[in-house]
Write a structure and sequence with these properties.
The structure holds 2 protein chains of 2 kinds.
Chain A (H helix, E strand, L loop, with lengths): L13 E10 L2 E11 L4 E5 L6 H8 L7 E6 L2 E3 L3 H4 L3 E4 L11 H11 L4 H14 L15 H12 L6 E5 L7 H16 L3 E6 L2 H7 L2 E6 L2 E6 L1 H8 L3 E7 L2 H7 L7 E5 L2 E6 L3 H8 L4 E7 L2 H9 L6
Chain B lengths: L2 H4 L8 H14 L1 H22 L12 H32 L2 H7 L4 H29 L11 H22 L6 H15 L11 H7 L3 H13 L7 H27 L2
Classes of the chains: A alpha/beta, B mainly alpha.
Chain lengths: 313, 261
């Protein structure tokens, strides 16, 4: 495998080349190539149905590709996927903790799937629970845990084999802000410990905060790749002005085009994208019927520009 | 279906931790689970055995309840394997997504299916054993030959566990299992000699009965329970083992088609 483009000389932890997968006559993954270096937090973004989860399942060797090659932890996948998975942790999109077991039993039973000796798992459990903020919950039943606690236990479970690479499929979906911030904090700790993370998410803020590199997929293809800041600079204007109010639509059609390099409407909001926000801000100050908010461009603006605003279900 | 879907199952001892997972869940619920497994067949055996048995002078030279006991042991073993591979396996595969979690670890689907089968057979053996113990306690058998039934039970558990897994692999929901009971399990109980000898059936039904695995299980277990060696051991064993092996292969293929796509 060639070294990834950002110039690490060590072999990538995960490399996919020209990956393809077809269901019926629809290509859900259509020529996807990427490489993740050790210690990276790599974000895989895309609207629903973009092919993110299928890409993860392909990389874990759970799905047979229709084309392309995968190397996970230096092993060819799917041929040697079982052994490759020994060095990988997975936080799935849907919790699949064992509801009949306690917190501790969940970790013990899962560790045994890796062929780890029970003494070794037992020795590891306190630090895993500490990491997940579940130290006092060792004997608790799964039904008594909150959604955030379950997610943290799933995260702890994915670390039971001390993996090099952790796959996280939408780890914070459905969590409240407090729980989400705690998960983010733990992910940063993992990266600081030298773990590699492959994260899929819908939350652009999450990707922007955590990932040093992201890849945006749509309809099975990669449509952008790079560091979040770099993508924002490259793909969208530096400033965004969101305009609301009764006359916003009319104003957008008549005045706005001269004030910004791009104007978009979504629902009752008009988005102005501009390298220089001053003319638009000055014009809006003299429109009493309109309210506006001026903010720096973010990854969500990139995402919406590249994947469009129409709903994906 | 491609070659990988149809490939011979690759089995390994990595199924053991999965078997132990199921066993740990069972241990937590063992008492109600055993009672539930025992109550139903016991009611049939005692109710029919003593109630109907009072009207029937003897069947094949023994009191009706003695005749019925061996059938009940096999029937109970079959039911236990069937319920485990239908409802419990479906719940682990589909509802709880337990299998998804396991397959993210270095365990293959083939080993997960093997674990489900061996676990169902284990539980089935316990059910059959429980009936045998009760029959022994009631004095329905005294022969040491009856202990050989313990060698028959794993075959019965594996055969019906494997068939049950095929059904689970194609089932969209729990409701689907009713067809299997109505169309296969219940008619088989009537045809296979649980309640009366197979030779009571009209000729065409007798031929059908000999194609069913439960008939062969009972053909082995009943003479053993009565203290004699079965007339032909190998053909019966071969039919049960054949059902287990073929159904297991079919189940693995069907699960691959369902889950590894």
């Amino acid at each position: 495998m060639p070294a990834p483009s950002h110039g690490e000389s060590a072999p990538p932890v995960l490399a996919a080349r020209e990956l393809r997968k077809r269901y019926g006559d629809q290509w859900v993954v259509d020529g996807v190539s990427f490489a993740i270096a050790r210690g990276e937090c790599f974000g895989l973004l895309g609207p629903n149905g973009a092919g993110k989860t299928t890409t993860l399942r392909l990389c874990l060797g759970l799905v047979e590709p229709d084309g392309g090659t995968i190397a996970l932890a230096g092993r060819p996948v799917p041929r040697d996927a079982r052994r490759a998975r020994a060095t990988v942790g997975v936080v799935p999109q849907f919790d699949n903790l064992d509801p009949d077991f306690t917190v501790e039993e969940n970790l013990m039973v899962y560790g045994r799937y890796f062929g780890l000796p029970e003494a070794a798992i037992r020795a590891r459990i306190p630090s895993l629970l500490e990491f997940a903020g579940l130290a006092g919950r060792r004997g608790a039943r799964i039904q008594t845990l909150s959604g955030g606690m379950k997610r943290r236990l799933t995260l702890a479970r994915s670390l039971v084999n001390d993996p090099e690479l952790v796959f996280m499929d939408e780890p914070t979906t459905g969590l409240d802000p407090q729980a989400r911030h705690l998960i983010w904090d733990r992910l940063r700790q993992l990266v600081a410990q030298g773990k590699t993370i492959l994260l899929t998410t819908h939350f652009m803020e999450e990707a922007e905060r955590l990932c040093n590199r992201i890849m945006i997929m749509d309809r099975g293809r990669i449509i952008a790749e790079g560091a979040p800041r770099m993508l924002i600079e490259r793909e969208v204007e530096r400033h965004v002005i969101e305009v609301r109010g009764d006359g916003a639509a009319g104003w957008a059609a008549t005045r706005a085009p001269a004030l910004a390099s791009r104007v978009e409407r979504s629902g009752d909001t008009v988005f102005l994208y501009a390298a220089d926000p001053a003319p638009a801000v000055a014009a809006l100050e003299s429109e009493p019927g309109l309210t506006y908010m001026h903010r720096p461009a973010n990854l969500e603006d990139v995402f919406l520009k590249l994947t469009g605003r129409e709903l994906r279900d | 279906m491609n070659g990988r879907t149809l490939a011979i199952p690759q089995l390994s001892l990595r199924f053991v931790p999965v078997w132990r997972r199921n066993q740990l869940v069972w241990r937590k619920l063992a008492i109600p689970s055993m009672l539930g497994n025992l109550a139903d067949p016991m009611i049939y055996m005692l109710g029919l055995g003593y109630g109907l048995g009072a009207l029937v002078p003897s069947v094949q030279g023994v009191p009706y309840i003695v005749f019925l006991a061996a059938g009940t042991i096999c029937f109970s073993t079959m039911n236990s394997a069937t319920f485990e591979t239908l409802y419990s396996s479906f719940s682990r595969m589909h509802v709880q997504r337990t299998w998804d979690g396991i397959m993210n670890a270095p365990v293959t689907l083939d080993d997960v299916v093997l674990a489900e089968l061996v676990w169902a057979a284990t539980k089935a053996c316990l059910s059959g054993l429980a009936i045998l113990v009760v029959a022994w306690a009631l004095g329905l058998t005294h022969s040491p030959m009856a202990l050989w039934i313990l060698a028959v039970l794993p075959l019965v558990g594996l055969a019906f566990g494997a068939i049950g897994l095929c059904i689970t692999a194609v089932s969209p929901s729990y409701d689907f299992f009713m067809y299997y009971f109505t169309l296969f399990i219940t008619p088989m109980a009537m045809l296979s000699g649980v309640f009366y000898p197979v030779d009571q059936l009209p000729g065409a039904f007798q031929a059908l009965a000999h194609a069913l695995p439960l008939t062969h299980a009972i053909a082995l277990a009943r003479p053993l329970f009565l203290g004699t060696a079965p007339e032909a051991i190998a053909p019966h064993v071969a039919v049960l083992a054949g059902y287990a092996a073929v159904a297991f292969y079919v189940a693995v293929v069907l699960f691959r088609r369902r889950l590894l796509k």
